[in-house]
UniProtKB/TrEMBL annotation:
Highest taxon listed in the record's lineage: Eukaryota
Membrane topology, record value: Multi-pass membrane protein
Family named by the database record: Belongs to the tetraspanin (TM4SF) family.
Protein name, per record: Tetraspanin-3
Entry keyword set: Membrane, Transmembrane, Transmembrane helix
Coiled-coil boundaries: none
TM regions (residue ranges): 6-29, 41-64, 70-96, 238-258
Location in the cell: Membrane
Keyword Transmembrane helix (UniProt): yes
Predominant location category: membrane
UniProt entry tagged with the keyword Membrane: yes
Pfam family, one: Tetraspanin
């Protein structure tokens, strides 16, 4: 029994350690929400799951140390619910970021982003006028476009240098006009609109060299935010999948050890079949 308790304690300690990357992923998404992605509700499920795993693991660890079967049982039940919640979150994260990506542009290092390439609940959420007002205000306050400027020995970068840059989705969608507008490069956030192809893309009319406006009201900016969210969520989801697999393995080990503890408490030898104990009279004629 002591060995089983030690095993349960070890599994709970390892489970506690596994909560750290989940909680870290939620905190990282939270920092992104305040600076880049500007969507402030997506990180909370991960933070809650991470904290829950920490608390439940401590309860299970205490149960193993003090041989409290109720705490061990509580650990197994609640951890099963947490594993189910984590599976649901991973599926949800992949489902809402399934469609959409940047388009390659000839002779450009960056991608262009178009809202029509995205679909589903997340797109509707970001595109909502009331909600977009908060997101665009967050993007302005974060200074994402102010950080895009570069100087080399005091000389601003040339158009050719800028065109080869690998811009983030937000920088590409919000800080410059779409490439198909045909505007002439002046600097990273300044473009000469004369002679441009003010054609089928309505974002061409929305672009402004006013540094407080730029393309924050453009559909390309909304698409850029969606592209940034997709990259953030996919990075965190990879970590979550690895942690989930390890959680399931540890859960199975803890469950087997708990069953062994119960069997020994009931004075049932590990190799004795239940049928033997259920019908002892059959063997003592």
């Amino acid at each position: 029994m002591r060995t089983s308790n030690h095993l349960i304690g070890l599994v709970n300690f390892l489970t506690f350690l596994l909560s750290i990357p989940i909680l870290g992923g939620g905190i990282w998404l939270s920092s992104r929400a305040n600076s880049t992605d500007c969507l402030r509700f997506l990180q909370w499920p991960l933070i809650v799951i991470g904290i829950s795993i920490m608390v439940v693991s401590l309860a299970g660890f205490a149960g193993a140390c003090y041989r409290n079967k109720f705490l061990m049982w509580l650990y197994l039940v609640v951890m099963l619910l947490i594993i189910a919640a984590l599976i649901g979150f991973i599926i949800f994260a992949y489902a809402v970021t399934d469609k959409g990506s940047g388009r390659t542009v000839l002779n450009r290092g960056y991608l262009d982003y178009y809202i029509q390439d995205y679909s589903g609940w997340l797109k509707d959420r970001v595109s909502d006028d009331g909600y977009w007002g908060k997101i665009s205000s967050c993007l302005r306050d974060s200074g994402a476009c102010r950080k895009i400027g570069r100087n080399f020995n005091g000389v601003p970068e040339t158009a050719d240098m800028f065109f080869l840059r690998r811009l983030s989705p937000v920088e590409s969608g919000c800080c410059k006009p779409p490439t198909d507008c045909g505007f002439s490069y002046v600097n990273e956030t300044g473009w000469d609109t004369r002679g441009g192809m003010i054609g089928p893309n309505p974002d061409c009319m929305l672009w402004s060299n006013d540094q407080s406006m730029l393309c924050y009201q453009c559909s390309s900016c909304k698409a850029g935010v969606l592209g940034s969210l997709k990259k953030s969520w996919r990075k965190v989801s990879v970590i979550n999948i690895v942690v989930l697999i390890m959680l399931v393995i540890f859960y199975v080990i803890a469950y087997a050890a708990y069953r062994n503890v119960k069997r020994m408490d009931n004075d049932e030898p590990a190799g004795e079949a239940r049928m033997t104990k259920s019908h002892p009279s059959h063997f003592h004629l």
